Every structure is written in C-alpha cells, then in structure tokens.
User: Fold this.
Amino acid sequence: MSRPESGALVLITGGAGFVATNVADRLLRDGWRVRLLDNLSRPGVEGNVAWLKAEHGEAVELVVADVRDAEAVRAAVAGTSRVFHFAAQVAVTTSLADPVLDFEVNARGTLNLLEAVRKMPDRPSLLFTSTNKVYGHFEDLRLRVRDRRYEPENPEVASCGISERRPLDFHSPYGCSKGAAEQYVLDYARTFGLPATVFRMSCIYGPHQFGTEDQGWVAHFVIQALRGRPLTLYGDGRQVRDVLFVEDLVDAMLRAHDAIAETSGHAYNIGGGPSSTISLLELIDVIGELMGRRPSFHLESWRPADQRYYVSDTARFMAATGWSPQVPVAEGIERLAAWLTESGTAASAELVGSGVAL
Ligand SMILES: NC(=O)c1ccc[n+]([C@@H]2O[C@H](COP(=O)([O-])OP(=O)(O)OC[C@H]3O[C@@H](n4cnc5c(N)ncnc54)[C@H](O)[C@@H]3O)[C@@H](O)[C@H]2O)c1
Assistant:
C-alpha cells in the first residue's frame, strides 16, 4: 500500500476481528494510525486488540461502539482517509435464529457508515466485505463426485471458478443482509460518487481467527484437532471451497484501496481461486498429515444455504491490480496451527463447539 502521509488515519469497523487484526497490523507496520471500531461481541476478540496495542502502542485507537449507532459511526469516520468496513453479524446460523438482528447490523449498519462517509467534505475510500452467499445455492451447477470432493461438470467452471457474471440470488437472511449492504455500497459509488469497492469473499483463514462451529471452519477444524476433539460435518464432507490465507487477503485489500480509481463501483470475487481448493474431507487429511493423527468425525444432515461447491474466479481483480495469492494451502494451515498453539487459542475455553458451517 502506498505510504501514508504523516499522521494519516484509517478506520476499521469490526476492528477487533480476525481480518481486521491482520489488516491493522500490516497498516501499522506501514506507518498508518489505525482506529478500530468494534462492539467486542465476538468472544475472544479483546485478545486481538491487546496484541495490536502491545505491538504498536499508541498508533492503535479502540472505539468500543456498535455500527447500529449512527452517531458513533459518524464520530469514528471523522478525520480518516481510508475505511475498511468489516463489522458484521457473520454467521448464517445466527441469521436464521435472529434475522432482524442480522439485518440491523449488516444492512442498516452499512447504511450508517455510507451516510457518514457521504457527508464528509474529504471522503475516504471504502472497502466492504461481502460474501459468496450472494450467489445462492447454484442449483443449476451440475456436479459429480470425484474421490473425496465434488467437481463441476462444466469444464470452464472447473478450471476458472465462479465469476462476477453469475446472477445474484441471495440465500439465507445473512445472504440477504450482506447482499443488500453490498448493493448499497455499489450504488453509493454510482449515485453519490463515493470511492467504494466490494469484495465477495470465499473462505479466509489464518492467525487471529477464533473459528467456531458457526463461522471460520478451517480454524475450527484445526482447533478441534489440536484439542483432540471429534468433528461434526454437516453434509457428506465432499463440499469444496477455495481458501485464502489472510496475508494474501490483506495484500488484495491494500491494492484495492491503492487502485480505488479503478476498483471503485466494482464487486470482485476474492478467494484462493482454482489453485487453492479443498473439501472438508481433504482438510481432515491435511490436518492428519500435519499432526500425525487424523481427526475423527461423524456426519449430520445438510444445513440450509450450504453450497456444495464454491470456488472464486479472481481473474477480474487480478487483471485490475496485478494481485495473486502466494501462500499454498498446506503452508497456510501449518502457519495457522502454529499460531493457535503459540497464542494458547486452541486451549481457550470460550470456543466450544464441534460442528461446522461453511
Ligand atoms: N472470514 C471469512 O471467511 C469471511 C468470508 C466472507 C465474508 N467475510 C466478512 O468479512 C468481514 C470480517 O470477517 P471476520 O472473519 O474477520 O469476522 P470477525 O467475526 O472475526 O470480525 C467481525 C468483528 O465485528 C464485530 N462486530 C459484530 N457486530 C458488531 C456491531 N454491531 N458493531 C460493531 N462491531 C461488531 C465483532 O465483535 C468482530 O470483532 C465480515 O464482514 C464477514 O462477514 C468473512
């Protein structure tokens, strides 16, 4: 990312979370000041803030506030030149249990932020994190089983993944609230000229992720394996995702801001792409090789909104910015396991759960 002018300030909403901590660490090392806005609702994330403060001291500011509070959001945006909007209700499962909360945080919270930015004299550039769930369930995508995974029959989808040309088809309250939010972001870029871009993200994994059964399945698998606990897989375990190590995501995010004149008004599919795909069963094998023993598991019925296959076609973003992921899956999993062990996260009592949702 281009070097900041002296004292330049970035706002990260959801700033205590997994992706935010990795983005903040990189920005702080690059010389930015960082303001984190978070309501600390996700268990364990206070530890991320403590770690950032220990590493970077007073260059980190924490605002404990909720994105549903428009006044607090307006105050937090003041004086910033870049905004990363990550604060969210992040789990499909929670959105099914409480769709109104999910809407208020994801859709209304995003609108609060957009309004705050729109009213600023010098508008900061904005990056919003959406999800592959906006493409729905892919009922038309014909799949076949090969060994321990699904693969698409269509050779173009098999080699390139799902592109942004795919029609939107919001599934689950979470898909709807994130989809509504990203459409507002794109429209504020179009209608009000906000410099704003959207990432439709697949599965991200890496250090500072407190994966649970509801969100963060790669980290959840590794945590359970480190604890010697069995896993529950919903479905048949052959579901395939492209996974992206968070360091590569951070690189993409900084490039999106740097190239905002080009990326503004666009939504990009972001993930590990066709070269970084893995099924649940294959991840269990990778963990088994890494730890010298294969985690045990049992199968339960499919959950709503679980896609059997999702792999991002990232060609559009790569062409716009020159980005490409660098960390191979096995290396990324090893680095995640090392962090979970060294930080004591795997031993933490807060992250109990044995199932997984993608
Ligand atoms: N991690 C992934 O694989 C993935 C995939 C697709 C999209 N995303 C999106 O990326 C963003 C970051 O994800 P993450 O994995 O870092 O999640 P995370 O849960 O680690 O971080 C989200 C943070 O937002 C905070 N938060 C929740 N509700 C809030 C509210 N009302 N006001 C203020 N703060 C609030 C939480 O305390 C948490 O610290 C989210 O918007 C998520 O939907 C993540």
In short: The radius of gyration is 19 Å. The first strand starts at residue 9 and ends at 13. The CA atoms of residues 161 and 217 lie 20 Å apart.
